[in-house]
Amino acid sequence: MLKKLFGFDRGITSVRTEIIAGITTFLTMSYILAVNPSMFGQLEGMPSGAVFTSTALAAIVGCLAMAFLGKLPFGLAPGMGLNAFFVYSVCLGMGYSWQFALTAVLIEGIIFIILTLTNVREAIVNAIPKSLRNAIGAGIGLFIAFIGLESAGVIVSDPATLVALGDITSGSALLALIGIILTGFLYARNVPGAILIGILATMIIGIPLGVTEFKGVLSTPESIAPIFCQFEWHNIFTLDMLVVVFTFLFIDMFDTVGTLVGVCTKSGMVNKDGSIPRIKEAFMADSIATTFGAMLGTSTTTTYVESAAGVAQGGRSGLTAFVIGCCFAVALLFSPLFLSIPAAATAPALVLVGLLMLEPIRNIPFEDFTESIPAFVCVIMMPLTYSISNGILLGMVTYVLMNMVCGKFKKITPAMYILAILFTLKFIFI
Predict the structure, then answer these.
(1) The pTM is what?
(2) Mapping DSSP to helix (H, G, I), strand (E, B) and coil, where does residue 163 land?
(3) Hey, is 385 helix, strand or coil?
C-alpha cells in the first residue's frame, strides 16, 4: 500500500526514517508560519490570523499533492521571495491591491498546470540563460535579507544617505542581532530545525526586552473568510498584470527546478541518464498547490530547498512529504504562539535564508562580462530598487543589449528578444 501511495521502497528506506525525515523538514521550513503573517499583516484587509491559517492550509495541500502525485520527499509552502514580491513589490511598491496580487497568483497556477501538461515548463527553463537563473536566486536573497533587517529596525531610512544603521543597542534591533548570532550558531552546528528554534528562542529572549507580546499557545484556527477567493478581474488584461504573472512564473519556476535538481542530484535520486524521476508529477503538485493557495488567500506555493534536510535524514519517498503535511495540520492549533513572534524574531530567518539563496552566485562565469554584468545588474537592482521584478527585467534587457553590442547574437534566443522588447516598453510607458 505504501509503495502504491507514496512510492515507498523498503529496500532503500523505512517508515521510521521517513517519519523522522518529514519532521526534520517541517522544523526547517515551518518558519514560514511566522514570517507570512508578519509580512501580509502589513496589508490592510489581510488579518494575520487568517494569513496564518491560509499559509498552513496551502502547505498541507502542497505536501499532500507532492506525496500522492510526485511521490518525492519534498515539502511545499508559500515561498520566501515570492511572498516578498507579493507584499513589497506588487502591493506596497506598485500600489495594487492584494486582491490583484492573488488574482495574478491564481493565473500563474493555472498557466503552470497547462505548461506542465504540455511539457512547455521545461522548455521555458532552457530558454533563459543560466547566469540569469543563478543571479535571480542571489538577488532575492539580498532583497529578503534587507527586508528582514529593515523590519527589525537594524536598517532605517535616512534623508542624507537613504539608509543608515538603526539603534542596535536596544529594542527590536538588538533582539534581531542576538537572533542572527543565535540562529547562525545553531545552523553552523547543523542542528535540525535551526531556523525555527532560532525564531522561538529569539521570541523568548524578547519577552524581558519588552519586544515580544505573548498571546498564548493553543487556539482554534482563525477563519480565512476575509481572504478566501478574493480576486480582482478587471485588471487581468493589463501589461502590469502580465509582468506580475510572468515574474511569479519565473521565480517559482526556477525555485522549483533548482530545488528538485539540486537536492535529487546531491542525494543520488536521479535516473541513469541524469534526469529527475517523476519531475512532471512534481511540477504538477507545485502547480496545484499554487492554484489552491491563491484561492485560500496566500502567495505562490513552491517546493522548499529546506527539503534537503529531510533527504539528508534518509527521506526518499512521498511518505516524507505526507508527514510534513501532517505536521502543518497539527501546527494549525498553535496559531497564537506563532502570531506572538515579533518581526525582530523573524528577521534572523530572513537573513539566514537570504544567505542560503546566495549560493547559486558561485556558478556565474564572472570572467565573461556578457554574462556577469547582466547577472550583477539583476542581483544588485533587486534590493536597491526594492523590487524583485525590476531586477529581473533590467537583468534580461541588459543581457540582450550586452550580447548584441558584443556581436554574440547566437547566444540570444528569440524568446529573449521578445521579452527584452516587452520589458523595455514596460519601463517607457508604465
Answers:
(1) 0.74
(2) strand
(3) coil
**The C-alpha cell of 138 is what?**
542571489
Angle at 128 between CA 29 and CA 371, to 5 degrees: 100
Would you tell me the crossing angle of helices 48-65 and 318-331 to the nearest 10 degrees?
160
Find the helix packing angle between 130-151 and 388-405, rounded to 10°.
150
Q: Kindly indicate the confidence band of residue 352, based on its pLDDT and cuts at 50, 70 and 90.
A: confident
Look at residue 64 and tell me whether its pLDDT is greater than 80: yes
Distances (CA, A) of 111 to 98, 122, 130, 284: 20, 13, 23, 11
Give the CA angle between residues 199, 313, 284 to the nearest 5°.
85
Q: Are 291 and 106 in contact (CB under 8 A)?
A: yes
Bridge partner residues of 78 (DSSP):
301
Q: Cell 496589508 identifies what position?
A: 43
Three-state DSSP at 77 gives strand
DSSP state of 412: S
The three cell numbers locating residue 277: 524521476
Place of cell 529527475: 276
- Yes or no: say if 85 and 243 are a contact pair by the CB < 8 Å rule: no
Dihedral angle computed from the Cα positions of residues 299, 303, 304 and 309, in that order, rounded to the nearest 10 degrees: 160
Report the C-alpha dihedral over residues 399, 403, 405, 409, rounded to 10 degrees. Answer: -130
Are 5 and 318 contacting, i.e. CB atoms less than 8 angstroms apart?
Answer: yes
**Phi-psi group of 293: left, alpha or beta (phi > 0 → left; psi -120 to 50 → alpha; rest → beta):** alpha
Instruction: Of 42, 105, 15, give the one whose Cα is nearest residue 289.
Output: 105
Which has the closest alpha carbon to 128: 302, 291, 303, 246? 246
Q: Which residues of 212-228 are buried (b: 16+ CB within 10 A; e: fewer)?
A: beeeeeeeebbebeebe
- Dmax (CA) of the chain: 66
Per-residue confidence (pLDDT) for residue 274, from 0 to 100:
59
- Cα separations in angstroms, 225 against 228, 229, 409: 5, 9, 52
Cα(108)–Cα(65) distance, rounded to whole angstroms?
Answer: 17
pLDDT at 272 over 80: no
Per DSSP bridges, beta strands 155-158 and 301-303 are unpaired
**Nearest residue to 127 via CA among 424, 423, 399:** 399
Q: Is 92 helix (H, G, I), strand (E, B) or coil?
A: coil
SS3 of residue 331 by DSSP: helix
Give the list of residues 6+ apart from residue 275 with CB closer than 8 angstroms, or none.
none
Mean pLDDT across the chain: 87
